Amino acid sequence: MSVKASQWSDLPRRLATISIGVPILWIIWSSDEWRVLFFYGTHLAMCWEWLNLSGCHWSFLLLSLGLSLVADEFFVAAFTSTIALLSIMTAAMPLSQTKAEAFTTGLIFICLPFRSWNNLAESSFRDTVSLLLTVWNCDTGALVVGRLTKSAGWQVSPLWLQRISPSKSVGGLVGGLLFGAMTFWSLPWFWQLMENLQWTTIAVSLPVESQSSLMRLQTGALLSLAAILGDSWESTIKRRYGVKDSGKLLPGHGGVLDRFDSSLIAVMIFPLLLGR
Predict the structure, then answer these.
(1) What would you report as the CA-atom Rg of the chain, rounded to the nearest whole angstrom?
(2) Which sequence spans correspond to the domains of the chain?
(3) Tens digit of pLDDT for each residue in 116-166?
(4) How many angstroms separate the CA atoms of 226 and 232, rounded?
């Protein structure tokens, strides 16, 4: 099999997962109750993958889920106190540095972003879909443009980028940035199309619909940069533990962590970019 053919060998599995998964997710997310339950379930799945990936103690799962249920006004204090307590326990008890690091990294990497995801899911179907469309299309742009430039012999991958992940390239980063920015820019027309097709009955206007085209491009570019940062963050962590994928739940995509990594930073800055 040629290099060009082999680098697209996962395409059928990716397309099959998308064609089956996207309609199911749309139906689930259309219900306020099911959307919230979905993200709590996703949090649970990511915690389970983190246990297998890092070798963290099973109590991490209970700790992360417990913190996600703390009321907003107490969350920052509860989260900071938990990190402080872990640091104290590392010094005072026979808790290995590796497990302490896994606890702390996992809470920052999973619990903190999913607190934001839970809040977003509770508040808005459109915001949930709009953010994921942007970051997932950023992922798609990075994948497609990166592979196309590699096939054409134009791949530029400096040493610092290879240290994060051997598959990443400058072309992929640019492609992800462009795809993500254009996705967010086109959201008003996307939602108008969904309403015309009667695939959504939610008529509440998005804040992005009142933004100028330039503002939407800027917001989309910032979300895409956050998506690239989140993806690179997970790549660095996986490289630290010597694995390629966080799991095998999603054929062609890896695990749940692999699918949501790009949203982990983006979801925390999303409300700020919309002026909330």
Answers:
(1) 19
(2) 1-30+124-276, 33-123
(3) 999 999 988 999 999 999 999 999 999 889 888 887 777 777 777 777 777
(4) 10
